[in-house]
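Much of what follows relies on a compact textual record of a protein's fold. The record below shows the convention in full:
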Amino acid sequence: MLASALPSAALAHPHGWIDLSVEVVTDADGNATALHQTWRMDPFYSLVVLEELSRGEEANLDEELDQLGHEIRDNVAAQHYFTEVRLNGERQALGEVTNYTALARNGRLHFMFRLPLAEPQPLEENELTYQVFDPTYYLEVVHEAEDNIIRDDALTLHGERECSLSVEPADPDPELIMRATMLDKDESGEPGLGRHFAETGVVACR
């Protein structure tokens, strides 16, 4: 879980969220090769973490953020980077994240990384979809939005290929919603719960 990479004080807030933006990266042939993701942590979560990292007279925030980024990468790697990618409904294997950074911007903690696909995947006449979610639903992941409207830059496509881009809202079963709301403040949902609350990014090039 991402929270395990953060200072213990952050655990006092059980239901944080991540504002997400994704760029689908393509190669010269128009094949999808990676998802460049930016996770913008919620203000309270960010405040607690940044205050923790700044403690001490000799604290170097840049160095602390570098270490935090490394810890977050290692922890979410065990959870497939919170990401599932499918091409025409078939789940795709992912590569290792080696390009990543953590930084503070306008009081918010950002974690940015390039998640490669194990093999380039053709977009022409295909539909690529992805979901980004915390499996235990400790953190909610939602695309960047203003006034509950998904921003145009929340999902972008690198390159000039003509494709339609959209973000489909989650549609969880009411029973699952009830189960999630009944979790105690120090509890996380069972593995897989977060998938039911995940938005779906769609890149359709048919």
Q: What stands out?
A: The first helix runs from residue 43 to 53. Residues 2-204 form one domain. The helical segments are 43-53, 61-77, 174-181. The radius of gyration is 17 Å.
